[in-house]
Amino acid sequence: MNIDNIPEAFSVTLRLKIITALVRSARTFQELREITQATQGNLSVQLTRLEEWGYLTSEKVIEKKKPRSTYTITEYGLQQFEAYVCLLQSVLQK
What we know:
By secondary structure, the chain is of the alpha+beta class. It contains 4 helices and 3 strands, in the order H-E-H-H-E-E-H. The radius of gyration is 14 Å and the shape is elongated. The mean pLDDT is 95.
């Protein structure tokens, strides 16, 4: 990865917040909403994009008659995030 081809996943602040939140552990939709302070609709759209691009996976279950979605970063998503962080570090060191 270089400065000329940063993936779209890192070009929107909300997407970057989502990926950062998932690095340490899986999170529910509600947890991500609290962390990012995003609206339900915007968060849903960005999660869908990240999932389509292979950065995360979702698991949807019914719990006490209510749907619950849990999101986990994929190996690909983690590798891309690490490459992005390395790129930023290299920019700072120059």
